[in-house]
Amino acid sequence: MPQKLIECVPNFSEGRDMNIIKQITDQIETVEGVQLLDVDPGKATNRTVVTFVGTPDQVVEAAFFAIKKASELIDMSKHSGEHPRMGATDVCPLIPVSGISMEETAEYSKKLAKRVGEELGIPTYLYEYAASAPYRKNLASIRAGEYEGLAKKIIDPKWKPDYGPATFNVKSGATVIGARDFLIAYNVNLNTTSTRRANSIAFDVRERGRVKREGNTVNGKIIKDEKGEAVYIPGTLKYVKAIGWFIEEYGIAQISMNLTNINATPIHIAFEEVCKKANDRGIRVTGSELVGLIPLKSMLDAGKFFLKKQKRSTGVSEKEIIKIAIKSLGLDELGPFDADKKIIEYVLRKKTGKELAEMSLIRFADETAAESPAPGGGSIAAYMGSLGAALGTMVANLSSHKRGWDDKWEEFSDWAEKGQVLKDKLLRLVDKDTNAFNQIMNAYQLPNSSDADKTARKKAITDATKYAIEIPYQVMEASFNSMSLIKKMAEIGLPSSVSDAGVGALCARSAVYGAYLNVKINLRDLDDAAFKENMTTKAENLLKKALEEEKIILDMVRNKIG
Q1: Would the pTM of this model clear 0.85, i.e. be above it?
Q2: Domain end: 324, 348, 372, which one?
Q3: In the sheet where 184-190 sits, what is the strand order?
Q4: Diameter over CA atoms, the chain
């Protein structure tokens, strides 16, 4: 079962004094096991968005310390900025990342809110999935009136805080805490300085839309329903909140958006729609800005979307897809966009510098030739397999761009995508094979004195050996699966690249055979007869199929070469 992880994205009402911001984030980093992912201050908004992740109890502890420090350092009576706000810690959402449900996450947000309200004396409201009433679900509703209107609002029974005193805290204001889905804070840049025009575009696209007026004119009387509430004309984008503002720091107006359901309205669709509505009003989008972090999938989906618009293959490397997304969305217009610091999965990954798949060709060869048993034949087999898949993918990508084959680009693109998946899997298996060998070595080093020690050691050796059999078998499977791509490219791909398909087949066949040898040698020392018989049969059948497939592909290649 995956470890329970939640993300916390508190927004603090200070974006100019880096000393204050640093003191707040230092509090987060005092909690062991919590990882600070991103600190994103904004001068014009005078607001800093902080992102950190950890296990639920750790995150609640870190969030409390940060809110406490913010209440000590930030005086809301002196605060001004472009962004709506009502407190020193304006909003503090918890977001489920893995191994935990939204319901559980909401309970943790209530635990945090209760502690903030009772121990710090800060009026605290619950929102989104933790909301105590339907009308409190929306952050904008709770924050309406902002800090300046809080003294009057807080004494209204309807707006009594969920936790903490129902009295105006002059220095800290109020805080909103809850649980929500992953949200992308995203700003689109315009070639105008007009806030009014930016707001018009924001009203065009945001889900809530704009107030309906008589005659549909700007100065027309507001139309109200039977309850006396203003009637709204919905915008074009679901799950999108948006406003227009002028950013003095950049000298431009922006559409500031919160994308609250990135599956329903992903970032590239929001960008495209703003471009369309801006163009309708004679305004041009010049780029965009990401506030905080973004999931890898969102960037890959965006990159593939723009590649498809160009009728180009989407079966290129992850790095290239992200580059296309950055350039197409203009995410680097206002400053460099560092994917390693902005994509959540990249920030979380921990590289030791010893990963085989990250080494140069020379270093990898030297490491293999060194006086150590790993990396060995298993890792080399996986790497050969990745090269076979890469060659098949290359032919697919070259074929997708061949002049006169414009009607075939999508077919080749689909094949190239499959190849990229197999190539990436085999590259991961390069390191997994070496790790599997190390697990066996570690198991043999376990204590062996008492009967309990011997039993535990034997089990550890058996488990590690099975793992060291399963990994090369996965190499066999992935390498064999790449042969269908290679075969198809030999059959219908770019004629001048048919030899590349042939080399790919040789790599794939060698990878299957090499991994087979590793399966066999590790099976030799295993006591589990049933597991041994099953894996032997599967591995031998797969090897036989790979050898047959290699012959078919090479015959095809020879016939085409002549």
Answers
A1: no
A2: 348
A3: 240-247, 252-259, 184-190, 285-291
A4: 90
